[in-house]
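Progress note, sequence design subtask.
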């Protein structure tokens, strides 16, 4: 097991280095942060002094090595826009994004897996046809349009839920949570549905197709011939074997939820890392943009490692292969 984890970590190192290289040099030529920080009226001497203070007068490779060295220590420099440490900004915004991603992922699992199993087992029922038709909405409509429609219905017309913001939060150490206040919970509902709807339909359709394939397999036919009850066949054999590819998709989609929460956070003005990234793009805030992409790459690497470990635990054939 240790060798398995070590090999995955060694494979992740070139990925992280490549993402760091791409993000740093891609954003190094976006906009003019000096003009944004100094405004319209500044002297050449002020500009030269700020360039030296930020280290922008150094060659690009030296700036990159400096960035990597600081990143390994958890330091990403100062935000050009806010003049604050980037690590502090991300630490402030991370709880909002992670809580939103967690709610969206739970919604996708709690709804997507049972509905996928049902539509796979009872594919000719009218309810299955309704679920499949409804799933086209989540697949077809863009995220921002879903968010706008939900705001129009539940915030403007009905007035049940807030249309923006995170509501009241409670500090627990450095972590801020909205789970402990009623307004925080209400504020989570619409963004979670918006972010999780596509994942619900994706997981539902994946589970359905895998269930249909597994139910046609020989070992399920053999189980029926042995006289096993449908409940045992459906949940003891079919669903268990369906979970292997589902684990992969769910793991990767969790990373995608965190990475692509940008649109949802922008629509609902959710104070998370995605909104911070969008605001930084407009101000050419290179340290924040580079740190965000590096963090998202790390999230995907960690999730892939967890998925591989779950594979290792769920599928005995992998352990047998390692033994040989």
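Output:
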């Amino acid at each position: 097991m240790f060798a398995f984890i070590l090999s995955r970590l060694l494979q992740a190192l070139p990925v992280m280095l490549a993402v760091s290289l791409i993000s740093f040099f891609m954003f190094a030529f976006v906009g003019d942060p000096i003009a944004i920080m100094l405004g319209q009226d500044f002297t050449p001497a002020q500009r030269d002094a700020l360039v030296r203070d930020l280290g922008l007068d150094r060659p690009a490779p030296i700036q990159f090595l400096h960035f990597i060295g600081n990143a390994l220590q958890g330091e990403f420099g100062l935000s050009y826009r806010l003049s604050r440490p980037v690590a502090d900004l991300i630490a402030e915004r991370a709880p909002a994004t992670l809580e939103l991603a967690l709610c969206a992922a739970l919604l996708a699992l709690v709804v997507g897996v049972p509905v996928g199993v049902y539509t796979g087992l009872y594919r000719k029922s009218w309810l299955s046809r309704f679920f499949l038709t409804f799933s086209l909405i989540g697949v077809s409509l863009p995220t921002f349009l879903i968010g706008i429609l939900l705001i129009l219905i539940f915030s403007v017309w009905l007035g049940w839920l807030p249309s923006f913001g995170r509501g009241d939060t409670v500090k627990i150490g450095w972590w801020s949570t909205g789970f402990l206040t009623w307004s925080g919970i209400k504020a989570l509902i619409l963004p979670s549905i918006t972010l999780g709807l596509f994942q619900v339909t994706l997981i539902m359709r994946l589970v359905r197709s895998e269930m249909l394939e597994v139910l046609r397999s020989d070992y399920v036919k053999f189980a029926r011939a042995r006289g096993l009850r449908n409940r045992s066949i459906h949940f003891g054999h079919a669903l268990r074997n369906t979970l292997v590819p589902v684990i992969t998709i769910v793991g990767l989609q969790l990373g995608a939820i965190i990475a692509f929460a940008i649109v949802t956070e922008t629509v609902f003005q959710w104070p998370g890392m995605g909104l911070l990234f969008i605001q930084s793009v407009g101000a050419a805030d290179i340290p924040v943009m580079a740190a965000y992409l590096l963090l998202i790459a790390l999230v995907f690497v960690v999730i892939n490692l967890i998925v591989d470990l779950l594979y290792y635990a769920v599928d005995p054939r992998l352990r047998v292969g390692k033994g040989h």
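Strands lie at 170-172, 175-177. Work on this subtask will continue into the next period as scheduled.
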